Amino acid sequence: MTIKIALIQLRVVDSKEKNLKNAIDLIRIAKKEKDANVVVLPECFNAPYTADTLLNVAEEIPAGETCRALSNAARDFGVHVVGGSIVESCSGRLYNTCTVWGPEGDLVATYRKVHLCDSSLSGKMTVAETKLFTAGSKYATFTVGETRIGLGICWDMRFAEFATAYRTMGCDLLIYPAVCDVPTGEQHWELAKARALDNQAFVAFCSPARDTHAKLIPYGHSLVVDPWGRIIQRATEFQEIVVADLVLKELTDVRKRIPVFEQKRTDLYDLKVGCS
């Protein structure tokens, strides 16, 4: 089996309506012209990544405007849509949340960002996430055919144990919608190769396009990495659609030839304070 994944590296502007229209147009192109069966949007794709704008576009899931638009697009085009992330409002709290919509327009997965980021390599704190969001506490997966897919958002990429937990659950593909600024992206983006190698899985990072006039300038360069740690597709910094064929039989090959999950010494990894 092959999954054709399309990463939508769209340019985010200061209009929720325009961002949604752009996203839907690009989802249509990814399915109708590129024949993708999984389409991915970036983190916080419906508004610029600043505290004020994110607060203004918060909505409930699944009743909000963005959710309705993604559900309709998934149904109309017959494709799985990984809806990047949006600001979810729930019971007086805000979450950075990824929704996944099936080809019938049904909500098949919801993931709230677990690892919130207050770090900034640029020296400027655009959004102190721990002050704005409540952290999630659950993993989230969905399936396409027989392939199980795990979800993370941006800073989750920094935590190797998180990715390995998904691999232990049987995931063959890890998807991370993300919006890193340029200095952070330059330092962290090829972590996709490490996550793929560590877990012998396909890994995709999806970023917004670069906008040099934005308060947070996105890194761009959305990419897909195979289980050998090779980058098989990579975007520029501009708005574009990155399409990659994930040949799933490669998973069997790499796991047979390099059986690291059979070689793990899990009896040694649970450290106890005071042990020598």
From TrEMBL:
Gene3D superfamilies named in the record: Carbon-nitrogen hydrolase
The name this protein goes by in its record: omega-amidase
Alphabetized CDD domains for the sequence: nit
Pfam families linked to this entry: CN_hydrolase (PF00795)
EC assignment: 3.5.1.3
Record's keyword terms, sorted: Hydrolase
Organism, scientific name: Anopheles coluzzii
Recorded superkingdom: Eukaryota
Catalytic reactions of this protein: 2-oxosuccinamate + H2O = oxaloacetate + NH4(+); 2-oxoglutaramate + H2O = 2-oxoglutarate + NH4(+)
Domain CN hydrolase: 3-248
Family annotation (InterPro entries): C-N_Hydrolase, C-N_Hydrolase_sf, Nit1/2_C-N_Hydrolase
Cellular component terms (Gene Ontology): mitochondrion
GO biological process: asparagine metabolic process; glutamine metabolic process; oxaloacetate metabolic process
Broad class of enzyme this protein falls into: hydrolase
Organism classification: Eukaryota, Metazoa, Ecdysozoa, Arthropoda, Hexapoda
An example Gene Ontology molecular-function term: omega-amidase activity
